[in-house]
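Hey, can you fold this one?
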Amino acid sequence: MSTALLITIFVVFVIAALLTLWRIVVGPSILDRAVASDVLLTEVLCVLGAEMAINQHTRTLPVLLVIAAVGVFGSISIARFVARKDTAER
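Sure. Predicted structure:
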């Protein structure tokens, strides 16, 4: 792969991660922060997947699976928390 292409991919991922971190810090609600954390986890998955494809290996596949599981369970936990909070307010 071309070095210029790799640098471009790196810059795009860094900008996306910084914007996502900004939303996590500034987000007006817990749901905004939850969605931003899911996006950040997805970006990490994409970076690891791209690294695996570029270097042609599968050593980080278990890490990808653990990060994906953490993201799913975290989203479910936040959704349940918000649902309980919403029910209690009514």
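The first helix runs from residue 3 to 26. Let me know if you want another pass with a different chain boundary.
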